[in-house]
Write a structure and sequence with these properties.
By secondary structure, the chain is mainly β. It has helices spanning about 15-20, 40, 85, 135-145, and strands at about 5-10, 75-80, 100-105, 105-110, 115-120, 125-130, 160, 165, 175, 185, 220, 225-230, 240-250. The chain has a single domain, classed as Quinoprotein alcohol dehydrogenase-like superfamily (Methanol Dehydrogenase, Chain A), CATH 2.140.10.10. A four-stranded antiparallel β-sheet has the order 3-4-5-6. A four-stranded antiparallel β-sheet has the order 7-8-9-10, with no helix packed on it. Strands 11-12-13 form a three-stranded antiparallel β-sheet, with no helix packed on it. Strand 4 (about 105-110) and strand 5 (about 115-120) form a beta hairpin.
């Protein structure tokens, strides 16, 4: 087994507004009263910062004058992927993580490619909790005959109303309580029994087979609706088919 560990490096710097740090010796000040702005403005709650995907924060404590003062504060080494995942037929077992960390009022949330979800204290790196995803390949294939080859990895988390949303091997969505790390509910078998499904095709042949989502869908906050869009084989190279579902998170 390789001992390789992929390191997530979070540059925790003089960004006390987001990571709530105050121990950097700098004269930089923020142009915004953090206590008076909206939560989404003082945090990084979405993969691309906000619901519009702007990748822009209105805060200016990091700027051209002090960017050279960035300092690495802590790291977390993700364990290497298991032998089972690395050599599972049809499974690309990526190690480490590719999900952008989400920052919510001093807490860091990130998912590994093993689909484990972590919570850390931003100012210290101390782990609050870890939600372990159990990889049961046989069960997943029983529930969804076509499991996409890239299924072990995930591209990002969604955060809303205190829940973190992640996807599973068998095309389901799970909600994890951001404070306790416990799974609160799940939406099962999203890709199953879609009109036109035909599961006798060999792996990656045919057009538009639905596999496992690598990213949970966006959430329409005004109505608390989770919108899930699945393309054939979860990417454009799957060909042809796609569908969109909406789920009422109030029920």
């Amino acid at each position: 087994m390789r001992n390789t560990k992929i390191i997530i490096l979070i540059l925790l710097i003089s960004i006390s507004t987001i990571f709530q740090f105050n121990n950097i010796d700098t004269e930089a000040t923020n142009n915004i009263d953090i206590q008076k702005i909206e939560r989404w403005q003082r945090n990084w709650e979405f993969v691309n910062h906000d619901a519009f995907g702007t990748n822009y924060s209105p805060q200016n404590q990091i700027n051209a004058e002090n960017v050279h003062m960035l300092e690495l504060k802590w790291t977390y080494p993700f364990p290497s992927a298991s032998e089972f995942l690395r050599y599972q037929p049809g499974g690309i077992a990526f190690e480490g993580a590719i999900t952008p960390p989400l920052i919510v009022d001093g807490e860091v949330f990130v998912a590994s490619n093993m689909r484990n979800v972590y919570s850390f204290e931003a100012n210290s790196g101390n782990m609050n909790w870890i939600n372990i995803y159990e990889h049961n390949w046989d069960k997943a294939k029983q529930e969804l005959p076509e499991v996409a080859g890239g299924a072990p990895h995930i591209h990002g988390l969604q955060y809303i109303n205190g829940n973190l949303f992640t996807s599973t091997l068998n095309c389901s969505i799970e909600a994890i309580d951001s404070k306790s790390g416990q799974t609160t509910f799940s939406i099962e078998n999203i890709c199953k029994n879609v009109e036109g499904n035909y599961y006798s095709w060999p792996m990656y042949e045919g057009i538009g087979k639905y596999g496992s989502p690598s990213h949970p869908g966006p959430i329409y906050e005004n109505e608390n609706i989770l919108i899930v869009a699945i393309t054939g084989a979860t990417a454009s190279w799957g060909g042809g088919r796609a569908f969109i579902d909406g789920y009422d998170l109030n029920s």
